[in-house]
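Data deposition worksheet. Section B asks for the primary sequence of the deposited chain exactly as it was used as input, without tags or linkers unless they were present during the calculation. Section C holds the resulting structure in token form. Section D is free text for depositor observations; keep each observation to a single sentence. Incomplete worksheets are returned to the depositor.
Section A, Depositor: J.P.
Section B:
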Amino acid sequence: MKPILTLLLCVIAFPAAAQGVLTLDSCRAMALRNNKEILISKAQISKAHNERKAAHTNYLPKVALAAGYLRTGDEISLLSKDQKSQLSALGTNAAAGFQAAAGQVVQQMPELGPLVESLGTSLVPVLDGVGQKFVDALNTDTRNLFAGSVMLTQPLYMGGKIRAYNQITRYAEDVAGEQLRADEQEVILSVDQAYWQVVSLRAKQELARQNLDLLRHIDADMQKMIAQGVATKANGLTVSVKLNEAEMLLTRVDNGLNLAQMLLCQLCGLPLDSKPELSDRGLDADAGPAEADVQTAFGNRPELRQLETAVGIYDEKVKVERSAALPNLALTGGYLLTNPNLFNGFERRFRGTWSVGVALSVPLWNWGENRYKIRSAKAEAEVARLRLDDAREKIELQVTQASSQVEEARKRLALSLKNNEKAEENLRTARLGFREGTITTSDVLAATTAWLQARTEVIDARIDVRLTDACLRKALGTLR
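Section C:
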């Protein structure tokens, strides 16, 4: 079942190829599907589209999660070493003063001597213990520090930078789309040239065969005339030479046709050894010429649209550089979590707090860096405008030249048709005269050569009309 389904899909995708007959439109469609440059341009469009979506997110708040662990050699100490030693010996340090005060009391009240002595002996270690507990309570133990935060940042004013970047990415997407159009027109023109080249060579192949058959008939008549003694062997050799030349001409045309077919197959994505039949077997049908309107070219040429968009991009770059000299304002908010935490005496537990704030950044002095960058961006924008003007002038010249080539090709076709009519009549008269013996061998061979040349010029002129019309349409930006 799978092979049958695959075959059906191939027939649907390539109906002309499946039937063995290709039209110009089917060749164009296959080339557009298989051309690598077209596929690259489509990928560039996807890239530019996603960049535009990414730039749009700069309007929205960003949320970031951060976490970390820090191991230090020493902990943070809220007390100095002297303060710790004094607190740890709080009772011992206070004993001297206590004994002095107690001595005065004992002098006045001797009966309290034993009580004071026992009180002093028991109070010293108690006070030393209290001091040590206080030192221990102020122990931060921050050698192992864990921290985490969730921060939200909402831009409020960035000097117009975000808006400019969004516009630049929109322009970049437009440029990618116009590049796809330009690549498509290049591919279509290449396919047209290869297609009509195959049609031309097939017509010339048929013409070469007719010429070969004609010379074979003349050679047969010449052999009869030689046998009857009304012609010489030299005349027969002259005809034989022309016959050999006709065979060589047919061989060259066959080789050229094979190469042209391979080129067309390569452009269409077909196997190089395939021999597709083309629907345009004849060259008599002729479409009307395109109207050479320069304004049409200005409105349709993808190159101009790209350059116009480039001007917009460089104008936006000026705004980006100018935004660097303007204040930036953003709203921030978040939640900070630490262990040991700072909110309950360096407790060895995770605890946090929220925060909300506004961040303002104002550039004050940078030695004119922003001013120079703005001038540079303006110069780039001016260069883009000059390139656009130059492209307009060149496109106007291209349209004029292409229009002249179309007119020249049509005049050449009209003259070649008249010459062909005369050459055919001349050949018919020469053959009748040759059979009746009133025309020499050289005259009939000259008439044959003139007829072949006239027919070849007609074929070339018809092909030239189609190719120049395609070039004109490409110059106008309407080739599709």
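Section D:
The chain has 13 helices and six strands.
Confidence is low (pLDDT under 50) at residues 1-19.
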